[in-house]
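Q: Could you fold this chain for me?
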Amino acid sequence: MAGRAGQVSAKRLGPDFYARGALEVAPDLLNKVLVGPDGRAGRIVEVEAYRGADDPGSHGFRGRTNRNATMFGPPGRLYVYFTYGMHWCANVVAETDGVAAAVLLRALTPLQGLQDMYEARGPAARHDRDLCSGPAKLTRALGIDGDLDGADLATADRSATIVDDGQPPPQDPAVTTRIGLSNGTDLPWRFHVQGADDLSRR
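A: Sure. Below is the predicted structure, expressed as structure tokens.
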């Protein structure tokens, strides 16, 4: 693949990649490339893992509802939810069908379609690092919204997918507690690429 704003040419991740525990999938997603429905794309540099009944910070903690149904599988789906009355957040569903497990995509390094990203983000984005440095920023930048909830990333049935362009995940990712939670704050389930310019929080 070419440089920061180059064209993404890579292999789509198959269903077996996602059919593992969220704590396995999360660090392995680092340095993979999220491709939005119209081809805008960014390298994943920050994620958070979420589980079900043993994770009080998770949407799945109290069981399945209409809102969180996608989080319960099958794996490889995109779980998109609306928060704070204004933002979409995107998660990758993991584990097996019927089990609540997902990985929140927190930040990307923009790679493809930067001009469209700037237009989508508006005046709040003054630099490349402003485009996708947060879960709500990256969904807006890539054009991801509730219409993509349940999209199959492995088959790209709605054109959104995650691909491997040959850059491996970091051997020693940074690991911290998750951000912005009132429960489950002690769990070290946030993973990010050390030194990345586009993190939601350093």
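A (continued): The first helix runs from residue 15 to 18.
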